[in-house]
Structure formats: C-alpha cells, structure tokens
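Ticket #4471: structure output looks truncated?

Reporter: J.K.
Steps to reproduce: submitted the chain below (170 residues) through the standard prediction queue, then opened the result file.
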Amino acid sequence: MNRIRVSDILATIREDHELVHEQLDILKALEGSIADADGGHLERALELLRGASQFFQTKLFRHFEEEERGLFLLLRDHLPRGSTLIYELEAEHEQMRKLGEQLRQELSWLRHEKHRKQPVLADLAQLCARIAELLTQHANREERLVKQYLSTQSQGGPIYETAPTNPRRR
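Returned output as attached by the reporter:
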C-alpha cells in the first residue's frame, strides 16, 4: 500500500473547506432575499448564484473526488466504524452533486425572464438553503472525523505523517 501523506490531505481539505465557507456565506445571504428580489437586485443575486454553481461544478465536485480517493480511504482504514461513516459521507457527496446539478439547471432556466416568477424564485431560495445546510453539516462531520483520526494517531503512535488542523472560519 502506498504511504499516504496525511499533511497533504489535510492541507487540501482545509483550503477547500475555506472556499466552501465563502460559497456558504453567499448562499446564506441570498437565501432570504432572492424570492422577493426584482430588477437589478435579482440580476445580481442570479449572477452570484451562477458563480456559486460554477464553483460547485469546477471545484467542489473535484474536491469530493479527491476526498473519496484520499481522506476517505485513510479514515475508513483507521477509525472504528470508519467504513460506515465514510459511506454516509459518500452518500452526502452524491446528494450534493445532485443538488448542485439541480441548481445549475434552475439557473439556466432562469436566464429567460419569463421564468422569473415568485414561486420559481422561492423554490430557488429553498434549494440554496438546502445546499447550504447539507454542506455545513457535511463539512462539520468531516472535520470531526479528521480530529478523531488525529487523536487516534497521537494515542497509538503515528502511522502516517500528520499536520495540525487549522480552526475553521465561521
């Protein structure tokens, strides 16, 4: 088995989670206002959501793949109940991929002004809220698992090279 550089995995996770938190801030800010937005405010909100959607498609989904090939293998092998917990995280990844694709499709549909009706915008606001909620829960769970892994390594002597985690920005 190839030796996994935990410090590299953790650094990637930290950096990616910081970017995710920036997108969460955008989603949370827009969630309460998009349903009632109009004119220039609606255009700006849709532009920000398109940026978030682009982030999901180009960065977040790639981050998921990196976690599935690196971090999850590590955690699965070294944590009690690791496999069960990782299957749950992988299921959340799949759910977020579907929600991200749904966001992309809805934003594409909303390029046409005739579709920009209040019920459609309210649905979009609910979708943003669901994505933000799931991403927040998922990132928090991953971070707890990483801390759990690090504590098991410090108790039993490190098998892999480790690096301390930075506290997450809120």
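Triage note (M.O.): checked the attachment and the full token line is present. The radius of gyration is 18 Å.
Status: closed, working as intended.
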